[in-house]
Design goal:
By secondary structure, the protein is α/β, with parallel strands linked by helices. It contains 16 helices and 15 strands. Strands 1-8-2-7-6-3-5-4 form an 8-stranded parallel β-sheet, sandwiched between helices. Strands 11-12-10-13-14-9-15 form a 7-stranded parallel β-sheet, sandwiched between helices. Strand 11, helix 12 and strand 12 form a beta-alpha-beta unit. Helix 2 packs parallel to helix 3 and helix 6 packs across helix 8. The longest helix is centred in the N-terminal third of the chain and has 14 residues. The two termini are 29 Å apart. The C terminus is likely disordered.
């Protein structure tokens, strides 16, 4: 039986010079960390731990199995990287990895590897990332040269195990990062094969934005009396993110997108599309209107995806048109705007898309384009986040379409204007919603 602990605190890290730190988490010096780690943290510009880090690191250093529930953007990569680096046994060249981190996407594997490298400053530690889309031979050579920590996607880790280029006999710590996402995209069989080949005496850390029943069952089977630390906020959507929607006919969505980008002038923006083909089409059309636009999706060669993400992180790209391949786990702090060109298929995908902005407490804004027939999808999202999106009038950006954005009165009625103070559910007594919206909520609740 897992022990449940509700962790509290602001998700924002306290940076140097913040006089409010006396009420927040202590400095990293208050944690049982070695001088070399404290020096690496200072060099990386990390002053005070986030609540996830302050709660997870001391328990992980004690060797406990832990399940941490936290949204992306809360510093959870460092929360497991720091105790792993602290617990590595030195002078084990070519003896096989001591720690392994499994992640759902190639981009996240690169990001986690880079975070390890940054936090390992001052140590003789070799971190290797293994993932598909890159030559397996080069990764095999890196593993044979000696890897203390392996970060990889389940499929490529299995490939190396089958080729005997990777041994898990010396594994002491396993991390399942973004566990719910890995199960969502079908990695459960691969994960179980990998865990069965790891020593039973290992420590296992599981990090997940949500803990649905499949994740709980995985933990019960492969973890030893895990302690659950819940760092999830009271509200799913980050409070610093303004969230709006436009009711728009599908044929006018691109015209609205161009007008919105021209008005907002985002520092950096991600435009989310539902399909790979749609992503390419929108990117090609946007590239004729704006500079610094690129696309990323699963059909691109890995070297192209790496190059696009590198340019986006460096701020050389202003607009990234993407599928949900970057919906989770990618930490780019300069994103000011999220535009859902297509309504996501699942409510949780909306949460993670919007979570790309407002990172580490920064302000952000998200816009969602909703066609008349997608009213139920919008309501499901609002019920999931317990918050109403504020309606924006298309006519403000496209006067030629009129106040209803080119839609007839009947088509626009399923999506009436909604006061932002109304809460779909909760213990408080919110103002009564407009009748049409109330009927829509009841109808959707019956369907769920």
């Amino acid at each position: 039986m897992a022990k449940q602990i509700k962790a509290t605190g602001n998700a924002n890290p306290h940076r140097k010079g913040d006089d409010s730190s006396s009420q927040g988490p202590p400095a990293f010096g208050g944690l049982p960390l070695s001088p070399v780690t404290l020096a690496a943290l200072q060099q990386a510009g990390y002053d005070h731990p986030t609540p996830v880090q302050a709660g997870l690191i001391p328990k992980a250093l004690r060797g406990l199995d832990l399940m941490g529930q936290a949204q992306t953007g809360t510093g959870k990569t460092a929360a497991f990287a720091i105790p792993i680096l602290e617990r590595l046994e030195p002078h084990r060249s070519k003896a096989g990895p001591q720690a392994m981190v499994l992640v759902p996407t190639r981009e996240l594997a690169v990001q986690v590897r880079d975070e390890f490298v940054k936090l390992a400053a001052g140590r003789r530690v070799h971190i290797v990332a293994v993932y598909g889309g890159k030559p397996i031979r080069k990764q095999s050579e890196q593993l044979r040269a000696g890897a203390d920590v392996v970060v990889g996607t389940p499929g490529r880790v299995l490939d190396h195990l089958e080729r005997a280029t990777l041994s898990l006999a010396g594994i002491r710590i396993v991390v399942l990062d973004e566990a719910d996402r890995m199960l969502d995209i079908g990695f459960r069989p691969d994960i179980e094969k990998i865990l069965r080949r790891c020593p039973q005496s290992r420590q296992t850390l599981l990090l997940s934005a949500t803990i649905p029943p499949p994740v709980q069952r995985l933990a019960e089977r492969y973890m030893c009396q895990p302690e659950v630390l819940d760092f999830s906020p009271k509200e799913i959507a980050v409070e610093t993110i303004e969230q709006f929607y436009y009711t728009i006919d599908a044929e006018y969505k691109f015209e609205l997108l161009v007008a919105l980008l021209a008005r907002e002038k985002p520092q950096q923006a991600i435009v989310f599309c539902r399909t790979k083909r749609g992503t390419e089409k929108v990117c090609q059309r946007l590239s004729r209107k704006f500079d610094s636009v690129a696309a990323i999706h699963g059909d691109l060669a890995q070297r192209v995806r790496d190059r696009v993400m590198s340019r986006f992180r460096e701020g050389k790209l202003r607009v990234l048109v993407a599928t949900d391949v970057v919906g989770r786990g990618i930490d780019v702090t300069g994103i000011s705007h999220i535009i859902n060109y297509d309504v996501p298929q699942f409510c949780d995908d909306y949460v993670h898309r919007v979570g790309r902005t407002g990172r580490m407490g920064r302000e952000g804004v998200a816009f969602t384009f909703v066609t008349p027939e997608e009213g139920p999808e919008l309501t499901r999202i609002e019920m999931r986040i317990n918050r109403l999106l504020q309606r924006k009038e298309v006519g403000e950006l496209l006067p030629s379409l009129g106040p209803l954005g080119g839609l007839p009165q009947a088509a626009a009625r399923p999506l009436p204007a909604q006061p932002p103070s109304v809460v779909v559910s909760g213990a408080s007594s919110p103002p009564a919603p407009k009748p049409v919206f109330g009927r829509r909520v009841r109808r959707i609740r019956r369907a769920l």
